[in-house]
Amino acid sequence: MNISKFDIMNTHQIKNLVVDKIMKIEDQDFLQAINTILDHNMPSNSPHTLTSEQKESIGIGLNQLENGQFILNSDLEDDENKWLNE
Q1: The whole model's pTM is what?
Q2: Nearest to residue 19, comparing CAs of 45, 3, 38, 40?
Q3: Which of 28, 42, 49, 76 is deepest in the core (most CB within 10 A)?
Q4: Among 7, 28, 31, which Cα is nearest to 19's?
């Protein structure tokens, strides 16, 4: 079993190591790539903003649900199995 130095370091130590390495990087493209990775892995404090098209689609779907315009997944699977066995 191989144990790396990261296995025995705590979170605070790893963060410090990463910051130290980042501070030594001069390549702007590489730093931008790191920033993009971090942006995608950071929890967002604000809710996702929906576009007007997304809001409209959600509204249409909710109206369809309220009006009974839906099919249960189990019914859909039954129909699919009947069709496949024809």
Answers
A1: 0.41
A2: 38
A3: 76
A4: 31
